[in-house]
Amino acid sequence: MSHAPGRVADAKNKPPLPTQESRHRWWVLAVIGIAQLMVVLDATIVNIALPSAQQDLGFSDGNRQWVVTAYALAFGSLLLLGGRIADLFGRKITFLVGLVGFAGTSAIGGAATTFGMLVAARAGQGVFGALLAPAALALLTTTFTDAKERAKAFTVYGAIAGAGGALGLLLGGVLTEYLNWRWTLYVNLFFAGIAFVGGMVLLQRTARDKSATLDISGTILVSVGLFSLVYGFSNAESHDWSSAATWGFLAVGVVLLAAFSWWQTRAANPLLPLRVLMDRNRGASYIAILISGAGMFGVFLFLTYYLQQSLGYTPVKTGLAFLPMIAGLMVTNILATTRLVPRNGPKPVVPIGMGITAAGMAWMTTLDLTSSYASHVMPPLIIVGLGLGLVIAPAMSLATAGVAPEDAGVASALVNTVQQVGGSIGTALLTTVSASAATDYLTGKNPKDPAALAHAALESYSAAYWWSAGFFVAGLVISGLLYRRGAPKYNENAAPVVHM
What we know:
There is one protein chain. The chain has helices at residues 20-23, 25-41, 45-57, 61-89, 91-110, 115-143, 147-178, 183-202, 216-238, 244-264, 275-278, 280-300, 302-310, 315-321, 323-344, 346-364, 373-400, 408-442, 450-482. It is mainly alpha-helical. The chain folds into three domains: 18-209, Growth Hormone, Chain: A, CATH 1.20.1250; 215-267; 272-491, Up-down Bundle (Growth Hormone, Chain: A), CATH 1.20.1250.20. The two termini are 14 Å apart.
């Protein structure tokens, strides 16, 4: 394996020469953090603006979900391709192209005059986000090679990944309430502009392996497979689970992803080298990210509905309500990545985080129409934040640690992919469960009675919280079984470690 100059000591064990990227690594972290925040924000920032956009452009309630789903479909189905492009053609150029494209499609979405134009722009954001997100995480993985510094860097990155959705709700509320819905898209020009200038100045161009080729067959199989899976779960929101539009796409997705796994064992230049998955801690981390992605929607989606529709909060007040959760997440993020995991390993830390989050979700089922924020809403939110902080940053760090430089992009893409698929699964399952709970409650009652409707909504939220708690309990069991005991070690046959 060839190594980048300045990264690895030579045969005489001379210290590596510092590269521009390593000298300015904390500024590089700031650039990557801004870019990642922009991508994460866009998963939720538009949600609060949807009613205003719907009124302005005149689309139906049935079509409203496609403003969100178009982004998720393009983003989720193309992430692995984006990660491999970053590996083959260079992380810097992929990162910069992703930024420019994301900003351009955001501007088109902000200027949209029709529903179709808005949905197309959101899909475009997903395409360029699929280039940007894995390149950003791969840059972080290869820039921070010292264990202690890497832990600090992933503390910041994990906080952005975990808290970005809540920050999106806050920023979306502020922009919608004080400007208009179009600024939830225009704001990306600001983020992208800063990150682009910083990336041009600080990031180093990496050498391209001209002998490597893109796995076209694998790309088609995994992209169409992930598209079918995400689309199938998205359809579950508006169709019955027995509908062919739901189970048909899910079945096609599973078959194509199975075929993709088989093909990766035979391809000359596989899109996803299976050695990336063979390390036990890394595999456990991907599962932890998948489950936490599914369960987090119980907070972001249904608590948002509860605060606005049941308690009458404004969009801005709703966003502010999530800040204590972010504070809790930041505290345990720092504690987990800098102290607990390096000292004790992931086995006690991530399962405990799953259990704490499950307890917080179960506590939320007690919320009712008379609940006050300080006494009833904030305490379980803080508990959920503390739990998520023990899960997200350690899992993201371990999912990409010990990976060979040529696999950094695809390993990073897989982190985003499983989180996106987890979010899609969570959205579909929790939406279906909550709708069924509301329908069951209204059976035999007057469906036009405001009091009955209000309590039906509470029943629907409670069901979603219980299921979210169930996801995290499953995560506790699975992560407890899969993670190795002790400080992290890596299987060098599964994914070669570059010794710095």
